[in-house]
Amino acid sequence: MPGAQVITPSAHTPDTPDPSDAVTVDPALVKRAVKAAALGNAMEWFDFGVYSYIAVTLGKVFFPSGNPTAQLLSTFGAFAAAFLVRPLGGLVFGPLGDRVGRQKVLAVTMIMMAAGTFAIGLIPSYASIGVAAPLLLLVARLVQGFSTGGEYAGASTFIAEYAPDKRRGFLGSWLEFGTLAGYIAGAGLVTVMTALLSSDDLLSWGWRIPFLIAGPMGAIGLYLRLRLEETPAFAAETEKAKSERPSVPLREMITGQWRTLLLCVGLVLVFNVTDYMLLSYMPSYLTSELKYDETHGLLVVLGVMALMMVVQPFAGALSDRVGRRPVIAAGCVGFLALSVPALLLIRQGSLFAIALGMGALGLLLVCFTSAMPAALPALFPTRVRYGSLSVGFNVSVSLFGGTTPLVVTALIGATGNVMMPAYYMMAAAVIGGVAVWFMTESAGRPLPGSPPQH
Q1: Residue 6: enclosing H or E segment and its boundaries?
Q2: What does the alpha-carbon distance between residue 412 and residue 405 come to, in Å, rounded to a whole number?
Q3: Are 331 and 365 spatial neighbours (Cβ–Cβ below 8 Å)?
Q4: Is 5 helix (H, G, I), strand (E, B) or coil?
Q5: Any idea what the Cα angle at residue 403 is, between residues 401 and 408, rounded to 5°?
């Protein structure tokens, strides 16, 4: 395999790796793998940032009911539909990645993501084709959601299986660096366009530009992914089979890993509840509950994300030195102790207080964004890693992460308690802390079912 040298055939067990089985991976190949994986994540969140920031305009284009609230709800309804099919995408792409290879499946998910986003930019408006317009938007969102179901688990698995054991945290942290960069790029582009274009131009043609950019981005990402060889771990697993890999039964992928899957769901829950709370819900909270200027609220969130980007690689490297468990546990303890003080700061309403409270929550979130891309793939053995992680990750995101804004809004409406976002994050931190307690430390160690790698 170009760029990777397997010294001897793998014959070790996950618990007692044989140093003579060690795999040496070309550093240049590792860098290409990280770039190719991170770009796909960046593209997914570029679309997320664009869609969130241009939602009002999209409502007028595709749902011209004359009621602004109904338009916005319809637009976000189409957005939320993508979360419903994510687990289905995970069930399809995950086992496929364990059977035919990570690289091939990640190439397919990249094509589908780019095609779905690009297609949105080509859909005629409601004024042109009537009800077919929102239906086509929904179809494009479902394609995006289906492909996303195989993207994160595959990308994190791809980086983890290429990375040297002692640098997996640092290299994996670049996956979420791509997430932050993509969101900032998408939201920033819409902000610039809104400032430069008139309302009429934005409504007639300007809104299409961010979605059409997905075409070239997808082509670049596909080129990078097609240039890569299969991961050393998957290549070694295939070599051990000495024949065409048999399919991994669903029973082995799910019921055979049920304890680890529960652990995965708990870790992903705290990761995504806090992520969606801070980056998706808080701008709406600032506007609806605190009557804060919408533009300033969005700019504060972008500033927090820029801060997180700076800290991200350093936190990933820290997880290589001190371990994944201490870093993730620090995030859980931090959210448990500081969610209420941070939200009280935010509720003071001054720009400084809001920035301080949001910044504190953002730095705590980095404990998860930096360590999880390395910790989650290490939960599962090579044979079922892609499939099991896809199921656990997407089920947790769909049930808990993506529903966070809706659930918190409903809880505030039902109880009248505006501190509910803090209590929700604290509850997630407790669940995450329990998961951390039961997880095994993986920093500096070979992935389960794989030889040592350096």
Answers
A1: strand 4-6
A2: 11
A3: yes
A4: strand
A5: 105
CB atoms within 10 A of CB 311: 18
Q: Per the structure block, which two tokens stand in for 91?
A: 């069930």
User: CB-based contacts of 251: which residues, under 8 Å, 6+ apart?
Assistant: none
Tell me the two tokens of residue 377. 């793939």
- The predicted model scores a pTM of 0.86
**Alpha-carbon distances, residue 293 vs 287, 298, 383 (angstroms):** 6, 9, 51
**Angle between helix 385-396 and helix 258-276 axes, rounded to 10 deg:** 50
Between CA 206 and CA 301 the distance in angstroms is 24
Angstrom distance (rounded) from CA 307 to CA 299: 12
Instruction: Determine the Cα–Cα distance for residues 441 and 419; give it in Å rounded to an integer.
Output: 34
Q: How far apart are CA 390 and CA 386, in angstroms?
A: 6
Q: What is the pLDDT of residues 102-128, one digit of tens each?
A: 888 988 988 888 888 899 899 998 888
What is d(CA 24, CA 30) in angstroms, rounded to the nearest whole number? Answer: 11
